[in-house]
Amino acid sequence: MPPLNSAVMAAQDYRRKYLATLGLYSGVVHGSFVMAVCGAVIGFTVSRISEPSLLEWLTVPSTFIFANLFEYSVHRGPMHHRIPGFKFIFERHAVEHHRYYNHESMAFESERDLKMVFFPAAACLVITLGSLGLGWALGLLTSPNIGWFYAVTAVAYYFNYEILHFAYHTPLHWTRWLPGMSLLRRLHTTHHDPSQMSRFNFNITYPIADWVFGSLSRR
Fold first, then answer.
1. What is the pLDDT, as a whole number, of residue 4?
2. How many domains in the chain?
3. What count of Cα atoms within 13 Å lies in the side-chain half-sphere of residue 21?
4. Do 169 and 108 touch, CB atoms closer than 8 A?
5. Which is nearest to 201 in space by CA: 71, 7, 62?
6. Residue 47 lies in a domain
7. For residue 82, what are the contacts with CB-CB under 8 A and spacing of at least 6?
8. What's the mean pLDDT when you consider all of the chain?
9. Which residues of 173-210 are buried (b: 16+ CB within 10 A; e: fewer)?
């Protein structure tokens, strides 16, 4: 067996120390919570949509583009820069997540490693309930269907984010057959290179904003 390089050894050492602090944490419970919350919100919002017009349907692609830009902005901004009031986001992402998974050690080894893959449960609730709140307000200003379309698209986008991020950090043989996954995994792996992480590939889902703003690296 070839010797481990320094990046792999650093990640494994950090994982051992971090996992020792987790107590009874379960990645299966964490992931199930995210699925249950997102599934419940998506199901509820879809059930509220009634006879939408073509104009109301346009809320879906509009919200998708907005979510992609929002994902990019938050990732490139507070997740990689110490901004007053958002230091906890920087610590969680740039310090902890990027030390736990670097470009030479991207895959989780046990379900407890999922602590550093999924958003915290509190963040999941903030995102889903916040999307519902914004959708309700938008529905008051426009039409109920537009509000519900916004909410379901925003929550579905977040759920898609969690699924894709999980896929990027699974052992490669689990996702090799999925269309487009090879490219998306490569983009995310490049982002986890310490020399590249503050410069390239800030979209976790689809690299639309990265392409628009010139921060896409395919290497």
1. 53
2. 1
3. 6
4. yes
5. 71
6. yes
7. 90
8. 94
9. eebeeeeebeebbebbbbbbbeeebeebbbbbbbbbbb
Place of tokens 């992609």: 68
Q: What range does the domain containing 193 cover?
A: 6-213
pLDDT at position 172: 77
Residue at 199 is within a domain: yes
Please tell me the pTM assigned to this model. 0.94
Give the 3-state secondary structure of the chain.
CCCCCHHHHHHHHHHHHHHCCCCCCCHHHHHHHHHHHHHHHHHHHHHHCCCCCHHHHCHHHHHHHHHHHHHHHHHHCCCCCCCCCCHHHHHHHHHHHHHHCECCECCCCCHHHHHHCCCCHHHHHHHHHHHHHHHHHHHHHCCHHHHHHHHHHHHHHHHHHHHHHHHHCCCHHHCCCCCCHHHHHHHHHHHCCCCCCCCCCCCCCCCHHHHHHCCCCCC
CA distance 141 to 153: 18
Residue 150's closest CA among 64, 211, 83, 217? 64
Residue at 139 is within a domain: yes
pLDDT in tens, the chain (219 residues): 444 577 788 888 899 999 999 999 999 999 999 999 999 999 999 999 999 999 999 999 999 999 999 999 999 999 999 999 999 999 999 999 999 999 999 999 999 999 999 999 999 999 999 999 999 999 999 999 999 999 999 999 999 999 999 999 998 777 778 889 999 999 999 999 999 999 999 999 999 999 999 999 987
The answer as to whether 219 is a domain residue is no
